[in-house]
Amino acid sequence: MKKTYLLIIFFLNCLFSANISISAENDIYKKIDLFGEVLEKINREYVDEINQSESMDSAINGLLQSLDPYSAYMSPEIFNEMQTETSGKFGGLGIEVSMESGLVKVISPIDDTPASKAGIKAGDYIVKIEDTQVQGKSLSEAVDLMRGPVGSSIELTIRRRGEKKALTFNIVREIIQIQSVKSDLIEKNIGYIRLTSFNENSGDQIRNKIKDLEKNKSVNAYILDLRNNPGGLLSQAIRISDFFLDNGEIVSTKSRKASENRKWFAKEGDLTNGKTLVVLINYGSASASEIVAGALKDHKRAIILGENSYGKGSVQSIIPLKNEGAIRLTVAKYYLPSGKSISEVGVSPDIEIGEEGEKFRIKTETDNQLNYAIRLLKG
Predict the structure, then answer these.
(1) Residues tagged active-site
(2) Which terminus of the chain has a smaller tally of CB atoms within 10 A, N or C?
(3) How far is the CA of 129 from the CAs of 97, 125, 143, 154, 237, in angstroms?
(4) What is the set of domains in the chain, with CATH numbers?
């Protein structure tokens, strides 16, 4: 019961730090008593002996995940692994995931990773990891199941929109090395820039790519490809948006505390000198990708082409805990210059074009969005 009392103390600390009414305070005391009673009966009556420490972790994680799909508890082990991953080189499958309806949902596979090469798509639901059903697992538990030694294989069972039967993928874990920016010259006069994630080096890389392309005097238009980009650092989204804007608001955040509400604005200086810009997005474009696409759309600086984006318009902070673990907690929401929220809505394209095999307004050849964008720029 020691763990029970520790949790009760935790809740009491939260209670006294909040400004709440006496009746609400009494209600919380009753709920704390109820929680202790339930845990005690589980310990005494449940058919199998339980690990109380794991039960408490699950209770904490359940509380966080009841808030939204992006808030979660990270044990010390998971928090340590996450810190390793932010260096840009780690072992894994190469997918960004969230939790929806008790299942792990793929936000986006990262380019040139095992998941992408195997055919995992944005919007896929992972229903089974090896022989373990995902239903009932927390996001952290599911992610932990997908971890393993580099070179080892893992079987994922996927449910996909439009497919009647479940799909099975055998994927070999690799060291994931994220090269976030790629560029090319298309049709001799179109600068193509592909951004796969927003990490700490993305802004510098894109600036250098634009400078290199601008040296070619024949370049008269740009394509910024944000498809299957799950997002990343807010600071980089702001900086990259600013590369294509001369002025105006880029994004704002609104939090529970009015004092923490913020707005970011573009500085003078469009690195492309106002050249025609097409931005490609799809369902796998999320978070920071949506900030860039939304800002450029609202300022009528770019033509947005592709599919409606994912709709992850919230800010998560990683808050360390005394046990050397951490919580990922949603602390604010993003708002576009128009005042619209991205959350659960996403950014809608100016020209809607879907992927092969799905319904869309304009049918084109393989890689529909990119080919249509090229023809659009060529006139």
Answers:
(1) 287, 298, 312
(2) C
(3) 14, 11, 10, 8, 33
(4) 2-50 (no CATH), 88-177 (2.30.42.10), 181-315+331-378 (3.90.226.10)
